[in-house]
């Protein structure tokens, strides 16, 4: 069940989303985490 689901999602994502978009999303998440940690340290 899980393997088939992962294959289906990966195929649909690869068709719709480009690798550059995935990298952008990862960088955005990383930046958000850094901002949260920075605010916690600062205050």
UniProtKB/TrEMBL annotation:
Q: Which domain of life is it from?
A: Bacteria
Which protein are we looking at?
Uncharacterized protein
């Amino acid at each position: 069940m899980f393997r088939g689901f992962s294959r289906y999602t990966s195929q649909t994502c690869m068709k719709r989303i480009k690798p550059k978009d995935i990298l952008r999303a990862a960088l955005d998440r990383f930046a958000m985490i850094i901002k949260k940690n920075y605010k916690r340290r600062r205050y």
